[in-house]
Amino acid sequence: MRSALECCHKGWGESIIIGVAPAGAEIRTRPFQLVTGRVWRSSAFGGVKGRSELPGIIDQYMKGEFALSDFITHTMPLEQINEAFELMHQGKSIRTVIHY
C-alpha cells in the first residue's frame, strides 16, 4: 500500500485501498508523501453508504433494474464452505450462497 501511494503523482495522485484489512493491521508512510498532495482513499463493501444509498439499490432491484442472481456464481451446502472460501481466494467466484 505504501508503494502504491509513493508511485502517485505529486499534487494530485490518489491511491485507493480496497477491502478490509485484518484486525490490528497498520499502514505506514512518511508524512512528506501526504503533504505534497498525494491522497490515500479507502473503500470497503463497494463504498456503499448503508443508510443513504442502500434503500435506493433495493428499490432498483425491486423494480427489476438488475438481477442479483447474476452475481451468484456458486451455491453450496454448508458442508462445502471450505471449498467456497477456496474459490473466493482463487478469484473463481463473485458470490457463493451457502445453504444450511
UniProtKB/TrEMBL annotation:
UniProt keyword Transmembrane helix, yes or no: no
EC number assigned by the record: 1.1.1.284
Example GO BP: formaldehyde catabolic process
Group of enzyme by EC: oxidoreductase
A GO molecular-function annotation: S-(hydroxymethyl)glutathione dehydrogenase [NAD(P)+] activity
InterPro entries: GroES-like_sf (IPR011032), NAD(P)-bd_dom_sf (IPR036291)
Keyword annotations from UniProtKB, A to Z: Metal-binding, NAD, Oxidoreductase, Zinc
SUPFAM superfamilies: GroES-like, NAD(P)-binding Rossmann-fold domains
Superkingdom field: Bacteria
Transmembrane segments: none
Species the sequence originates in: Gallibacterium anatis
Gene: frmA
Protein name per UniProt: S-(Hydroxymethyl)glutathione dehydrogenase
Record GO cellular component, one term: cytosol
